[in-house]
Amino acid sequence: MAGPGLGCGPSATLWVAVTALSAALLAPGLTQPHDLSRRRPLGLKIDQALLLVHNELMHENLTVSWLSDYCYQCLYQDLVSVPMSNTPGKSSIVAVAVDSQHPITLHLNGTGAGREFPRIHYHFGEFGNYSLVVNFGSGTKMISCNIIINESPVNSHLPILYAFLIYMGVLSILTVGHVFMIIDPIRNWFYKKLHPGDTDHLINSELGSPTRADSTSSNVPATTWTVSQQRLRSLDIFRGLSLIIMVFVNYGGGKYWFFKHQSWNGLTLADLVFPWFVFIMGTSISLSLNSMLRRRCSKWKLLGKALWRSFLLFLIGIVIVSPNYCLGPLSWDNLRIPGVLQRLGFTYLVVAVLELVFAKAVAENDTLLETPYFALRDILLYWPQWVFILTLEVTWLGLTFLLTVPGCPKGYLGPGGIGDFGKYPNCTGGAAGYIDRLLLGEKHIYQHPSSNALYQTTVAYDPEGILGTINSICMAFFGLQAGKIFLFYKDQHKQIMSRFFIWSVVMGIISAILTKCSKDEGYIPANKNLWSISYVTTLSCFAFLLLLLIYYLVDVKRWWSGAPFFYPGMNSILVYVGHEVFENYFPFKWKMKDSQSHGEHLAQNLVATSIWVIISYLLYRKRIFWKI
Ligand SMILES: *[C@@H]1O[C@H](CO)[C@@H](O)[C@H](O)[C@H]1NC(C)=O
Ligand SMILES: *[C@@H]1O[C@H](CO)[C@@H](O)[C@H](O)[C@H]1NC(C)=O
């Protein structure tokens, strides 16, 4: 009775009802209690504060330049110049907007020679009103600067707290509902009404929908099919979790910097999810290919299928990343070629072929029980795959560090622009950027990399470019390894979990060495734009841990049904494509009262994300899956 499908039926329906409720609550709830628009000094944008610079120096013009703490080795940028006051005894004041996301350093300079101007390090708050008063201190040689708060800033993180409380409310209603469901007659009634029927379908496909092959070739003796009887829900939940965060982040993440991609090096929430998606794709490839091989599917047929799938992914990817598809025929002149689905498609193809060529159905290997390396058989049996992956990695390192890029230093990993003290403004992404611009053309790659704003880069750079795809194959291969662990040690929870833990530790150590545990100072910093190798190892470290946790909660202990992440995980292609295509349509987007308010953005993005979860749940109930 306590099958995995049961717990989720009624409670998930409740979940949907309550999420719909919370979606209705969120929009007004996050914006009403502290109407930010009333407090916003006119003309200020989101993440800005007002700074009034008072020049009280006589006969001297003042210039102010600034630098964000998050801009690594950047040049100071001009902020404002304040002319000297014409009327004696009065200061001249100029108002300017300053960044409030990160602490910044202000650097003052005057026209008079031989003076020491102090630097000011300060973290302005959003929509605050500040004065910077510059005058001669008590001694006339020293300039003194003081920051005065005229009006205190708003707390722009408050909406996150409200959203959190609303979702916690949802969770508690759900829990109460769950307890309610334990009462037998009620549960039976719900169960009859709502149980979607046959839940124990087979191992999910690589991309999260049950494959066609699963439903057609069911004439195989059940004895050869042990893994599927205990479907691994953790994979779908892991996939769904990454996907939902991805949707939220793509919709804007409330315009908070920590929900958006990092400008260059380092990790934010947004930088975590794509690699996880790639990782779990690898895991699913391992499980589904193995099951099909054991059902005597021909390798050629599977190869054809893999080719077709990756072709479709590539095609869909091209269509949805192209911005013009609503405005008329595709414009070939500036069609973006790389993209998320394109990279997924290619990664899928390479890893699936690699697995097809070298995989053996796992059951055959039981004769190896006596060999000395038994504990490592999930690795050693596949040594040719490891050789291939290592070769790829050497290729990545070679191209990244040895390729000669005109006008740029060898092995450049920086953002260009004003980074590296402005020495290499057009070198964004070093070899990775160069290869894409050379092979695909400047117009056929992404035009607005995340380094645009902070580092003021001007060249096009694609975060889903060619060189990074090598490392995404690597990421999927680590996921494939997780799948092999599931297969080799099936039902031996301790074995599986300890292996995941060991992998996580190993990956963590490699990352710590490569990055020197720092954001910018390492040999190879973790970088989403480059998909550097340290990024892959760091994210694999997290992925093994996360999978371990979900596996323990869901498949070992059965404490959690996986709702709500399970449902989008089952229909990932549909949710991904859907969220991209309908991004600008109601109810995923609407006209905001104040487009410069974090609260409204957060409400909109969370509502949109919740709606996709509801859609995927309804489709799950109707057994509608988009299979490719
Ligand atoms: C900022 O504060 C100053 C000093 O109190 C005040 O004169 C000015 O009007 C304020 N600016 C805005 C836009 O509120
Ligand atoms: C960078 O590219 C821009 C535009 O193509 C060009 O004007 C500029 O001179 C280049 N800078 C360097 C240092 O090559």
Summarize it.
By secondary structure, the chain is an alpha+beta fold.
Characterization of this structure:
By secondary structure, this protein is an alpha+beta fold. It has 2 domains: 5-156, Immunoglobulin-like, CATH 2.60.40; 197-621, no CATH class. 50% of the residues lie in helices and 9% in strands. It has 20 helices and 8 strands. It has a 4-stranded mixed β-sheet, with no helix packed on it. The longest helix is centred in the N-terminal third of the chain and has 28 residues, at 4-31. The protein is globular and about 90 Å long. Residues 407, 425-426 line the site of one 2-acetamido-2-deoxy-beta-D-glucopyranose (NAG). The site of one 2-acetamido-2-deoxy-beta-D-glucopyranose has 6 residues, from strand 8.
Instruction: Please state the structural category.
Output: alpha+beta
Largest sheet: 4 strands, mixed
Each distinct ligand:
2-acetamido-2-deoxy-beta-D-glucopyranose
Strand content: 5-15%
Order of helices and strands: HHEEEEEEEEHHHHHHHHHHHHHHHHHH
Q: Helix count?
A: 20
Q: Count the E strands.
A: 8
Based on CA atoms alone, the radius of gyration comes out at 28 Å
Global outline: globular
Strand order of the largest sheet: 4-1-7-8
The average pLDDT score comes to 84
Give the terminus-to-terminus CA distance. Answer: 33 Å
Helix content: 40-55%
Tally the structural domains.
2
Assembly classification: single chain
Low-confidence stretches: 1-10, 196-206, 209-229
